[in-house]
Amino acid sequence: MNVTIEDFTQADYDHYMSYAVDGYAESNIKGGRWTKEEASTNSQKQFDHVLKDGFKTAGHIFWKISLDEKQVGAFWFYQNPNNLQNAFIYDAQIEEEYQNQGIGTHAFSIIRERLKTLGVHKIGLHVFAHNSRAFRLYERLGFEVTSYNMHYLID
Questions:
Q1: Phi, psi (5° rounding) for residue 153?
Q2: 103-155 residue pLDDT tens
């Protein structure tokens, strides 16, 4: 399995943004945080706020995940310039047709080594409760649950 990790180009970022904002909006609808009516606007506002300079925003790093030179996923994390030992994963994904083939696990082993070379000792992330596939993957990779958010809907 020839999995590689490379820096995003502007074209990679543009492609990523063509689906990432909508995907985040949909996850927040499923997660009960936003209504369908507000999700698209809220999602775009959050991306605009976090990524003021696009993929060149300070501290934010985007890598593409490729299998045999074909891009099959993306990885976006933030490394706070004031605390280089901690990184936060904003997004990690493998295209659906390439999931359950060990690509994500293999990619993460490469990513983990790269993060070590950047001085990272601790990686944080958020997983929506409805994304059980990602949750199981992160558990297998050794991530530990640090908190739970819950809500109750009253009719």
A1: -95, 130
A2: 999 999 999 999 999 999 999 999 998 899 899 999 999 999 999 888 787 87
User: What is the reported pTM?
Assistant: 0.90
- Give the CATH number for residue 48: 3.40.630.30
53: part of which helix (H) or strand (E)?
A: none
Number of domains in the chain: 1
Residue 105 located in a structural domain: yes
**Would you say residue 148 lies in a domain?**
no
Confidence of residue 15 (pLDDT cuts 50, 70, 90): very high
How many Cα atoms within 13 Å fall on the side-chain side of residue 37? 0
Residue 26 neighbours by CB under 8 Å, 6+ apart: 39
Domain, as residue range, for 137: 3-141
Specify the DSSP element, H or E, that contains 46: helix 36-50
